[in-house]
Specification:
The chain has 616 residues and is α/β, with parallel strands linked by helices. It folds into three domains: 3-239, Aminohydrolase, N-terminal nucleophile (Ntn) domain (Glutamine Phosphoribosylpyrophosphate, subunit 1, domain 1, 4-Layer Sandwich), CATH 3.60.20.10; 254-454, 3-Layer(aba) Sandwich (Rossmann fold), CATH 3.40.50.10490; 457-598, Rossmann fold, CATH 3.40.50.10490. It has 19 helices and 27 strands. The longest helix has 22 residues, at 434-455. The protein is globular and about 75 Å long. The termini are close together.
């Protein structure tokens, strides 16, 4: 969602803020802006524009600003259409305060009415501007006190950063749910909504917790509790990945780079988690293992691509454990009064660790006494900190909005966790024995090389995309383990090409989707072998062919029968069915990517989408 950056130090703030915002472009935005204090600290300088960051850069090109204190923002519209007026930063009536904000002020309308009665003049349609005026209303010479009063009166989930001519040597921050990261430097300090904006300057960071505010000076960071105003001590964390990992590395798009990073990502996970014949999770201690062994029901809770990983997890866990297992979308779980109790395990899956609905679902699960386990990529993120236990995927920074390597990392971790629980849980499946475990681990170790082999088939995918890129409707079918990948393949296509795509369990085709099939309809059929439903998938393909549908198949290398039935087959190496989604996802990603490129889409920053959805 919205991107926030802030700087205080001895260097010129403007280029640092622009650079930080450029690192946050992947989050999705529709306008950008910057505010700085002049060198005397008695006047605000403000620039903001609708559209891409480059438009703002052109506007300020040639500006020589001596300021060493400022804030920047990329906005993703919620309240008020994309426009220069609605872009952040927002100011108060006297232009003493400039503020940037991520999240939603739920009671902004009554607050706005009350402030207008008191003489405040608003220049935008946003909920954000309320905060600037509310803080102005409460400012009696102590900005921290004004922030405390405003934060207590505003309802919702949000974070903000502000500067003020009243206290020109300070940067003020507040967090409630939406992430804020403080970057620590020498004679300078930083703040951002995402650590990737800070890596050019520092890897040492502090994470604000909910209902905490901070005051940054160039040589000091102070963190306080909103509730009792007590100063807090917080240990810094070192970010484990570098700027170079967050760059394109010669690829035309981040998405393609991240697709090609997947063999290494999976290899890294396996090297860290497989020690001899054992699965090791360094973040799960013996007490946690005993608690996991008592689990009576498992819930996967997640959003978007991570939800599809949870659906695959449903099948993976089901193969290893004789327990009830279900996958639920986070936004539904949090509102349905879920039937969970102290014997349940709730597994939250999220790349960013900041997804608003998944965070709310986590808190609901904890409120009901369930044990919570987070599968997260971003170290130190809110969900990683609040869950009872966490397993990091360590996929490195994922910049492309459409998730690729994070998805395969999630599937790999879930596969390992499923086998791990199959070893320690008394209700393991009867056929889950040491011989099966050894066979599965052997197959797991082959996956990085097999993903590399799959990537070598990209030329066939490129050729097929050239034939079909003008099509506006696609149907994706799969069964069992690969039904979730039918959903994921359709989602990837929708996200970055804007074509209409649907994923279905293939057995449901005759219950409606078959009406769509004609000689113009591409149908992507995921049909690896061996599989319990292989013969059934072949029958589905025959039905599509009988209606002249265009069959694009994803199957196992050497499958001559599938090749004969397909307009275009894509092949993956043979693996155990439980791991097949890790391989079949790769051609789906490449197919969506090639279709998007041929249609001239902005692959890394598709319209209306954000990398991390931190508001409802």
């Amino acid at each position: 969602m919205c991107g926030i950056v802030g700087y205080i130090g001895d260097h010129k703030a403007l280029p640092i803020l622009i650079q930080g915002l450029s690192h946050l472009e992947y989050r999705g935005y529709d306008s950008a802006g910057i505010a700085c204090l002049n060198s005397q600290g008695n006047r605000l300088w403000l620039a903001k524009e609708k559209g891409k960051l480059e438009i703002l850069q052109r506007k300020i090109n040639g500006v020589h600003l001596a300021s060493s204190l400022g804030i920047g923002h990329t906005r993703w519209a919620t309240h008020g259409e994309p426009s220069s007026a609605n872009a952040h930063p927002h100011t108060d009536c006297r232009n003493r305060i400039a503020l940037v904000h991520n999240g939603i002020i739920e009671n902004y309308e009554p607050l706005r009415r009350e402030l207008i009665k008191k003489g405040h003049r608003f220049k935008s349609e946003t909920d954000t501007e309320i905060l600037a005026h509310l803080i102005e209303e409460y400012d009696r010479g102590d900005m921290a006190q004004a922030i405390r009063r405003a934060a207590k009166e505003a309802r919702g989930y949000f974070a903000f950063v502000l500067i003020s001519t009243r206290e020109p040597e300070k940067l003020f921050l507040f967090k409630r749910s939406n992430p804020l990261v403080i970057g620590l430097g020498r004679g300078e300090n930083f703040v951002a909504s995402d650590a990737s904006a800070l890596l050019s300057h520092t890897r040492d960071v502090l994470f604000l917790e909910d209902d905490e505010y901070a005051i940054l000076r160039k040589n000091q960071v102070q963190i306080f509790s909103l509730n009792n105003h007590a100063p807090l001590r917080r240990k810094s964390v070192s970010i484990g990945w570098s700027v170079s990992q967050a760059q394109k590395g010669g690829f035309p798009h981040y998405m393609l780079k991240e697709i090609h990073e997947q063999p290494k990502v999976v290899q890294t996970i396996l090297e860290a988690r497989l020690k001899g014949g054992k699965i090791v999770f360094d973040t799960l201690n013996e007490k946690t293992k005993r608690r996991l062994a008592k689990t009576q029901k498992i819930h996967f809770v997640s959003c978007g691509t991570a939800y599809h990983a949870g659906l695959v997890g449903n099948y993976m866990m089901g193969e290893c454990l004789n327990l009830p297992i279900e996958a639920t979308v986070s936004s539904e779980f949090r509102y349905e009064d879920p039937a969970v109790d102290k014997d349940d395990l709730v597994i939250l899956i999220t790349q960013s660790g900041e997804t608003a609905d998944t965070l709310a679902a986590l808190r609901e699960a904890k409120r009901k006494g369930a044990y919570t386990l987070a599968i997260v990529n971003v170290v130190g993120s809110t969900i990683a900190r609040e869950a009872d236990s966490v397993i990091y995927t360590h996929a490195g920074p994922e910049i492309g909005v459409a998730s690729t390597k994070a998805y395969l990392a999630q599937l790999t971790v879930i596969a390992l966790l499923s086998l791990f629980l199959g070893q320690i849980h008394p209700k393991r499946r009867k056929d889950f024995n040491s011989a099966k475990m050894a066979r599965l681990l052997k197959s797991l170790r082959k996956l990085p090389r097999q993903i590399e082999e799959t990537l070598k088939g990209e030329s066939a995918i490129r050729k097929c995309a050239k034939e079909l890129y003008r099509k506006k409707n696609f149907l994706y079918l799969g069964r069992g383990y690969n039904f979730p990948n039918a959903l994921e393949g359709a989602l990837k296509l929708k996200e970055i090409t804007y074509a209409h795509a649907h994923g279905y369990p293939a057995g449901e085709m005759k219950h409606g989707p078959i009406a769509l099939i004609d000689s113009e309809q591409p149908v992507i059929c995921i049909c690896p072998h061996p599989s319990k439903t292989y013969e059934k998938m072949l029958s589905n393909i025959e039905e599509i062919r009988a209606r002249k549908g265009i069959v694009i198949s994803i199957g196992t290398k050497g499958d001559k029968q599938l090749s004969r039935l397909s307009h275009t087959p894509f092949f993956v190496p043979s693996t155990e069915e439980i791991f097949s989604p890790i391989l079949t996802a790769v051609p789906l990603q490449l197919f969506a990517y090639r279709i998007a490129v041929l249609n001239g889409r902005d692959v890394d920053k598709p319209r209306n989408l954000a990398k991390s959805v931190t508001v409802e």
